[in-house]
Amino acid sequence: MGYGILADVVVALHVAYVSFVLFGLPLIWIGLWRRWAWVRNPWFRLAHLLAIAVVALEALLSINCPLTVWEQDLRTLAGQTVDEATFLGRLLHNVLFYDVPPWVLTICYVAFALVVLGTLVLAPPRWRRLAHG
């Protein structure tokens, strides 16, 4: 498999990660309103919080996202830029990246993480209790 295709796979995984973070929160809110039991799953809720916390922390510490670095490295090994990637690779890359100052994204990531944390505190997950007897 070529490096360019692997770079496309990495950017697809990156889009999946971002989708989990972005769409997870409104699904949690809708699920709380509709009383969907799965939105109270502690593993889902903690994974969701951890996912955005990692992004916010990377932004605060000015650390490049490992998935972005991996994609760039694979594109370099393939001898291509994003503009030379496959249609799907370009499309997915363009969904993820915007030309804005880094501080804007940092504020967005931290604010989103705080909303996710607030949601976790105000509507906590339900831990199953062991049955005794």
Characterization of the model:
- This protein has 133 residues and is an all-alpha fold.
- It has one domain (3-122).
- The chain is 71% helix and 0% strand.
- It contains five helices and no strands.
- The chain has helices at 3-34, 42-60, 66-78, 87-96, 102-122.
- Helix 1 (3-34) packs across helix 4 and helix 2 (42-60) runs antiparallel to helix 5.
- The longest helix is centred in the N-terminal third of the chain and has 32 residues, at 3-34.
- It is elongated, with a radius of gyration of 18 Å.
- 18% of the residues are buried.
Main attributes of the structure:
133 residues, mainly alpha, elongated, single chain
Strand tally is 0
How would you sum up the global shape? elongated
Number of domains: 1
Radius of gyration (Å): 18 Å
Present the secondary structure layout.
Blueprint: H1 3-34, H2 42-60, H3 66-78, H4 87-96, H5 102-122
